Amino acid sequence: MLTTIANVLAGLIGAGIIFIGVNAFRAPRAAAGFGIPDTPTEDRTFQAWLTVKAVRDIASGLFIFILLAGATPHLLGWFMLAAAGIPAGDALIVLRSNGPKAAAYGVHGATAVVMVAISVLLLVA
């Protein structure tokens, strides 16, 4: 039962990060809401950086779905634990950039905590 719940939550994380990546391609201005103040969303160089980030996000989400489809819960658990470093790092970047603490903790930090919880569920199952 816990494995099923953890798999569903992992799938939601995967779908969410794919959505974020696709959205970065579609509407770069949306990146301004992720916590870095004075984000130059009109700058072509910054938009190129967003494209790199979008690819990273989409690939990360696809990795989760690949592991859901073909790996053991234990392997998915280790992946989710390692991948929790991404939103944790994003939270630190927002804080170092004097971004809003609500975005750092409420979006990125909360995502990292949920991913660690998912990994624990998968690793103890």
What does it look like?
It is built from 5 helices and no strands. By secondary structure, it is mainly alpha-helical. The relative contact order is 0.19. 79% of the residues lie in helices and 0% in strands. The mean pLDDT is 91.
Cα-based radius of gyration, to the nearest Å? 15 Å
N to C succession of SSEs: HHHHH
How would you name the oligomeric state of the polypeptide chains in this document? Answer: single chain
Low-confidence stretches: none
Number of H/I helices:
5
The coarse silhouette is globular
Strand content: under 5%
| Biggest sheet record | none
Q: Briefly note the structural class of the backbone.
A: mainly alpha
What is the typical, i.e. mean, pLDDT?
91
Amino-to-carboxy terminus distance: 9 Å
Count of strand segments: 0
